[in-house]
Amino acid sequence: MTRPPTAAQRRVIDAADPVTGRLRGTESQLAALVRHGLAFRHPRPPRDHFLTPAGHRVREEREAAARPETAAAAGATAPPPAASGVFAARVGGEEDAGTGPARVREVHSAWQGLLELRRMTNRDGGTDRPCAWERTHLVQAAALALEAAGHRPAGAGPEGYRVRATPQPEAVAVRDPDPVALRACAATLEAAGWQVGEHAEPRTGARCLLASPRRV
């Protein structure tokens, strides 16, 4: 990319599907995003356009700039909330971790969109393992798999799962004080195409999961 996207192109990027990155715009706008490395055209019908990882970064940087208070407020305990109108899976620790019918529908739609993204971007069209987007959004991807399967994210109290980044490449940590619920989280992630191992944390001895996207 040699120059920043135009205002019209930024509007197209901002309006992309929050999970799949599918784009809608004029042919000239989409072609320009492809030239700049911010989008790609899928080779299979209906040959829609999608954000590349660079395109996702552009949108995420704009969202972060629109909410400058979140980085300081969130600290290391929980990722910042999504901007208004943008879906975000609950990683645990959010103040509002309730699950009403509208939230259930929203999560189901996001999960189906992610499966479609897998189908369209994995080389063999497989939906049984994570795609490139998930590998660059590990915490959100793992949390979406858990929430879509009906697991309860932690709220203000200790009960429920929490998904956090780790120093290890392509690995997230999943914690739940209930050992039965933790094992159920492991089964869900394995079914969603993640490699999962259970470990004892060195300082506390508490059990946690380390999960990484499976490649084959």
UniProtKB/TrEMBL annotation:
Region (Disordered): 42-84
Ranges annotated as biased composition (Basic and acidic residues): 57-66
Biased composition (Low complexity): 67-77
UniProt protein name: Uncharacterized protein
